[in-house]
Amino acid sequence: MDSKDHHHALGSNTRTVAGLTLVSRVLGLVRDLVTVRVFGDTAVGSAFAAAFAIPNMFRRLFGEGALSAAFLPEYTRLADDDPSKADAFASLTIGLLALLTGLLTIVIELLLLIAVLMSTDNPDRVYSLKLIMLMLPFMPMICIAAILGGMLQSHNRFGPWAAAPILLNICIIGASVPFFFIDDADPATWAYPIGIAAVFSAFLQVLWSLWALKGTVRWTRGVNAAKAEAYSMLRRMIPVLIGLGTLQLNAFVDTLIAMYPNWVGAEFMGHPYPLDESSNAILFYAQRLYQFPLGVFGIAVATAAFPALSRVAKDPARFNEMLRRGLRLSLYIGLPASVGLMVVGGPLVRVLYSGFGDGFSEDGIVRATSVLLAYSIAIWAYSLNQLYTRAFYAQNDTRTPMRIALVMVGLNIVLNCTLIWWFREAGLAWSTAICAILQTLWLSLAAKRKVRAGNDLGKSSSRPYGLMILGSALMGLGLWLIANQWGLPAQWSGQLVRVVVICAIGAAFYLIWSIVWNMEELRWIGARSTEQAGNPDGDNGADR
User: Fold this and answer.
1) Closest Cα partner for 381 from 428, 423, 426, 442?
2) Helix segments in 517-540, DSSP class H
3) What's the CA gap between 305 and 69, in Å, rounded?
């Protein structure tokens, strides 16, 4: 595949992943809209959020994080050069993953059982731990499904895995809806069938991914030929686990701090704890909203770029150009997403999480809005961190992102424990955002020094970045003026129309801005042919 084909593939694959992820995320919003009206901003909502977040953290760290990042470059190389060894390598990796995650699940389940038996004096803790025990089997199955998805991406089949989370959303929605048709249904009881539905969806995603790989991979028991590659992968995995998992580790620490009132009590060392039993539910549902643009666009770019970066890792010029194009795509989408969500976050929380039926209280809406504002500031940084980290891994440099991530995790814990006393749950979000921005700056400097591409990352004209910043700022200012002039309607339907119209105006403005200024990033995303993708060097006359 030549340079033009790689650049075309990045835009095309980003479009595929983003499009299907958009469908999944819209269904995810429907899922949240339903479940928040089952649980609300209550202790039950916090317990379910923790039970859902913990196995998902393992999925992000192992399935879609460390193991995937260590596995994919080697598998991509073998799939191109030695398909039979690639099959052995994949078979051995899946077998090891099933064994290790299965054993890990058993060990954690036993520890949780002991904790339950020792917590008879704390019903809230017992209930939360039981929910975690119920949903923990989600972890090994979804990790296996995620590696299968990485294999599909290595073969340039991005659609099936991008569509797989749709199964999760359908299962949870299907299990939640009957709650509204049963008189006096108990949310605490209903959390159990919803949790079972989530676990079942992971099994379906494994089957779906295996079916999608049919004819592409030949599973085998003869794995001896790939033992050296598997050992090398495992050796790289620990640094990758820390480097790529920073955001997930920070989010997990947030969960632990937010669940303190549920698991321990309302006081900390004799002082009233600044969070309460609803804090984790507020934090969880606010996170879901900033993760929407991040998952649809930011991670989509990094996902599409990773196999391409791995393939051109030995060609500094092509690697550099691929990374530079990925950075521009990430910022092109991440900057307006940050600005837009900062403006419409409050109305969005109100529309999605309150209104018809139950949902968040007025206090919960205000607190969730503050959390979302803090998270939104760094959407562009979360996106760039995903891409930068994968660029290091494509070059087999796992230590640089690991060192940076260790510092960021430590700083995040310090900021968490400090800021919650002033800003409650929003302090956790501010800590995550600050650390993400600092991590981006540090990764950028390290990339210029250590990534094999050398110091070429700044070669591009500053004009594209200036247009992104100015366009996002003007869009945000316009949306803020519209939102302030258009008062909050009394009816939920009017509030929904208000949010949809404001979001549509923002998207239309940025699209027109991109067309008027002939921004290449729009053409890269929309290109359907190599010629349409334009000059592979990424700089046309308008950029100079």
Assistant:
1) 442
2) 520-526, 530-533
3) 12
Inter-axis angle of helices 43-58 and 138-154, to 10 degrees?
50
* C-alpha triplet 96, 97, 101: angle, nearest 5°: 120
Greatest mean pLDDT among 259-268, 285-294, 453-462, 527-536? 259-268
What single letter denotes the amino acid at residue 173?
A: I
Give the C-alpha separation, 529 to 527, whole Å: 6
Number of domains in the chain: 1
pLDDT at 241: 64
When the pLDDT of each residue in the chain is averaged and rounded to a whole number, the result is 84
| Helix residue spans in 451-462 (DSSP H) | none
pTM of the predicted model as reported, rounded to 2 decimal places: 0.82
CA 159 – CA 488 distance, rounded (Å)? 39
Strand partners, 267: 272
Locate all alpha helices (DSSP H) within 118-220, ordered by sequence: 123-135, 138-154, 159-163, 165-176, 187-213
What pLDDT, on a 0 to 100 scale, did the predictor assign at position 540? Answer: 36
Q: Which of 283, 431, 474 is nearest to 367 (CA)?
A: 283
Least confident range from 217-231, 473-487, 488-502: namely: 217-231
Stated length of the chain: 544
User: CB under 8 Å to 365, separation ≥6 — which residues?
Assistant: 346, 349, 350, 353, 354
- Kindly tell me if the per-residue pLDDT of 219 is higher than 60: yes
Q: What is the C-alpha separation between 389 and 400, in angstroms, rounded?
A: 9
410-419 confidence digits (pLDDT tens)? 999 999 999 9
518-523 contacts, C-beta under 8 A, 24 or more apart: 518/542, 519/332, 519/464, 519/467, 519/468, 520/328, 520/464, 521/328, 521/329, 521/332, 521/464, 521/468, 522/332
Burial class (CB in 10 A: 0-12, 13-18, 19+), 482: middle
pLDDT digits (tens, 9 = 90+) for 434-486: 999 999 999 999 988 765 544 444 455 688 999 999 999 999 999 999 999 99
Domain that holds residue 479: 3-543
Helix then strand then coil, in percent of the chain rounded to 5, is 80, 0, 20
> Are the C-beta atoms of residues 246 and 69 closer than 8 Å to each other?
no
